[in-house]
Amino acid sequence: MVEWPLEFDELCDEAKSVLRCNSSFYVYKNNGIIYFQEDEVASLYIVLSGYVRLSYLIENGTVILYEVVPPRQSFGELGVFNGDYYLDTATAVGEVKVMAIHSRVFNMQNEFKSGFQNALRNLISRRCRVYAEITKNLHLNTLSARLAQSILRLAKSMNNKMEYNGRKVRYLGGMVTQSDLGSMARGTRGNVNRILKLWKREGWIAICNRRIIILKPLELENLVFEEGF
């Protein structure tokens, strides 16, 4: 059974059936490439299980990791909208199962076309907000602020929660490494590690079983707001 992104979840059962009939299902091993930046567009993808890293190469040759996509979210939608090529590279984190909805379905002439296109527009709107946040983040002056914003944004997007000392808090799981955070925040893994240890001593975060547990999100937000984010 497919767990649809919220943007598709409101479609009727018949419309969802059309999507399934125009889809293929794939499993990728850890670090498997789902598509490369500037590959010709074939599909819009939905993560069924596992996680997918999205990154892009900028003109100076730097690779920027900007998103880790959890189950029930999509990726590749901007390429489908453009009808040309993908704007990022998608890579599997661990074993990943995806549903690939063939791009042609969004232009098919049927009674569901407007619903499909509205869902696609909503997906694109969400992805563009992520791009805007990443662009702002890259221009923050300090690594601490960039790292704080990256952690908060990812934690909100992935929405993983756990009980910790009697209260429910957000956390980042082991699928997001310190190297990943360094790529998102423009810092080395070593410097990311030093900042995380400082925040742990301050009681802002806890680190357990490769999870970064966010105990005081307001303190992290203040680092960002102090730079006028």
* Helical stretch tally: 8
How is the biggest beta sheet arranged? 6 strands, antiparallel
Strand-pairing-aware structural class: alpha+beta
Query: What Rg is obtained from the alpha carbons, in whole angstroms?
Result: 19 Å
Shape: globular
Unreliable sequence segments: none
How many E strands? 10
In angstroms, what separates the terminal alpha carbons? 41 Å
Mean pLDDT: 90
Helical coverage, percent range: 40-55%
Strand content: 25-35%
Helix and strand run? HHEEEEEHEHHEEHHEEH
Overview of this protein structure:
This protein has 229 residues and is an alpha+beta fold. The chain has eight helices and ten strands. It has helices at 6-9, 13-21, 77-82, 113-138, 143-158, 178-185, 189-202, 217-225, and strands at residues 23-28, 33-35, 43-57, 63-69, 74-75, 89-102, 161-164, 167-172, 205-208, 211-214. The strands form two sheets. Strands 1, 2, 3, 4, 5 and 6 form a six-stranded antiparallel sheet that branches. A hairpin with a 2-residue loop joins β9 and β10 (211-214). α5 packs across α6 (178-185) and α5 (143-158) crosses α8 (217-225). The longest helix is centred in the middle third of the chain and has 26 residues, at 113-138. The termini are far apart. The model has no long low-confidence stretch (mean pLDDT 90).
